[in-house]
Amino acid sequence: MPLLNELPVGATARVTGYSDRNDPGRRRLLSMGLTPGAVVTVTRRAPLGDPVELALRGTALCLRREEARIVTVEPLADSLPA
């Protein structure tokens, strides 16, 4: 299962869950709206790759690469950049 931190800019994906259910940041990410079924789009990435900006539920959310690495996603095929 791909991870959120692996998606390229412009890709849209559906959150499927978390790879590490015991990660202390999981609860915080859930409270920010990264729940299973949520659709996210990678809008920007900093020059060195950290942080990444996501469009989620009509708002912008920035995550560090370490935070995004525990979120498993299902890329939506019609949204992958060429």
What this model shows, in words?
By secondary structure, this protein is mainly β. The mean pLDDT is 88. It has two helices and five strands. The protein is globular, with a radius of gyration of 11 Å. A five-stranded antiparallel beta sheet has the order 4-3-2-1-5.
The fraction of residues assigned to DSSP E strands is: 35-45%
Which bin fits the share of residues in helices? Answer: 10-25%
Largest sheet: 5 strands, antiparallel
Sum up the overall morphology in one term. Answer: globular
Structural class computed from helices and strand pairing: mainly beta
Count of β-strands: 5
Which strand order spans the largest sheet, edge to edge or round the barrel?
Answer: 4-3-2-1-5
Give the ordered list of helices and strands.
Answer: EHEEEHE
Report the mean per-residue pLDDT as an integer. 88
Low-pLDDT segments, ≥5 res: none
Question: What is the rounded Rg?
Answer: 11 Å
Keywords:
5 strands; 35% strand; mainly beta; 82 residues; single chain; five-stranded antiparallel β-sheet
List the helices and strands and how they pair.
Layout: E1 12-18, H1 26-31, E2 39-45, E3 52-56, E4 59-63, H2 65-68, E5 71-75
Antiparallel strand pairs: 1-2, 1-5, 2-3, 3-4
Describe the structure concisely for a colleague.
This protein has 82 residues and is mainly β.
